[in-house]
UniProtKB/TrEMBL annotation:
This is AB hydrolase-1 domain-containing protein. Signal peptide: none annotated. InterPro entries: AB_hydrolase_1 (IPR000073), AB_hydrolase_fold (IPR029058), Sec-Metab_Biosynth_Hydrolase (IPR052897). Residues 8-281 form the AB hydrolase-1 domain.
Length: 299
């Protein structure tokens, strides 16, 4: 019997939502994939009827619960995570102990997370916040604001949003706007402020740190967006190179200490001539990349 195609869990970035993934999900469904896209509470706490988040851990928990639900209800089906931009941080953290190799070693599970697909994502290490990892300064693409807490109106919560100039269309969807300006404006209108504390609290775990990655069988793929105005391609490549360099050094040290060669781990990189959101501007090309990452060889 043929191996079932994995379920793809799509994790949106800052200010975005599962609605931004709808064109990609529709295309994946037509190619036989089941998809799930959780709403991250750091942006969508009101929709989820929960208090504003107190740390990035709330986003991590939302992704992890989605993964576990899929693994438990479909024990013969693996999971592939696809994460965009900020979403890479909670998605990566959520994989702790859930990769297929780790679950198989326990002797209790036959399925697990087999791959992490990253689109223009942030490769911060565990134990540090995204803010501190970025030098402690608010990124130039963001602006901060405050609002009364819906839980206690006498207190304020800080929010971050895309800077109004040049704005989300120019930052995220400029290439889509060149072909379909109304669509770009519609997706910009769906953007939602994010609770700032998600960027100020440390990541609990990241699968691309050497100690974690050398112990797991997780495959990591990265789609570099060459015309990205929000996270420039040269910076994307610097992050990838830094991770690969650290992992290669740790792999060599581990092999020397053990007297044998540790398994190779390297981010598999593909580039695409798109802005920050190729799943909106280049849907067909993005789907082909996803299918190849999931093991389809003849596409």
């Amino acid at each position: 019997m043929a191996t079932p195609k994995p379920t793809i869990i799509l994790v949106h970035g800052a200010w975005h939502s599962p609605e931004h993934f709808q064109p990609l999900e529709k295309a994946l469904h037509s190619n036989g994939y089941r998809t799930v896209s959780p709403w991250l509470p750091s942006m969508h706490y009101a929709r989820l009827n929960v208090p504003p988040v107190s740390s990035i851990d709330d986003d991590v928990s939302a992704v992890r619960q989605t993964i576990l639900s899929e693994l438990d209800t479909r024990p013969d089906t693996d999971v592939v995570l696809l994460a965009h931009s900020y979403g890479t941080a909670p998605a990566g953290s959520a994989t702790e102990g859930l990769d297929k190799s780790s679950r198989t070693q326990t002797g209790h599970h036959s399925n697990g997370v087999t791959a992490l697909l990253i689109i223009s994502g942030l490769l911060a290490p565990a134990g540090i916040s995204l803010l501190d990892w970025g030098g402690g300064q608010v990124p130039p693409t963001m602006v901060l604001s405050s609002m009364p807490s819906p839980v206690d109106p006498t207190k304020e919560i800080k929010l971050c949003s895309p800077v109004p100039d040049p704005g989300p269309v120019a930052l995220f969807y400029h290439d889509l706007a060149e072909r379909d300006a109304p669509a770009a404006q519609r997706y910009a209108s769906l953007c939602t402020p994010q609770v700032w504390v998600a960027h100020r609290t440390p990541l609990p775990f990241t699968p691309w740190t050497p100690a974690a990655w050398l112990q797991s069988g997780l495959e990591v793929f990265y789609l570099v967006c060459e015309d990205d105005k929000a996270l420039p391609a040269p910076f994307q490549r610097l992050m990838i190179q830094a991770v690969d360099k650290e992992v290669a050094a740790a792999r060599e040290d581990a092999g020397t200490a053990a007297g044998n060669e540790a398994p190779e781990r390297k981010i598999r990189v593909t580039s695409i001539n798109s802005g920050h959101c190729p799943f909106l501007s280049l849907v067909e090309e993005t789907v082909l990349w996803v299918r190849r990452c999931c093991g389809e060889e003849d596409v």
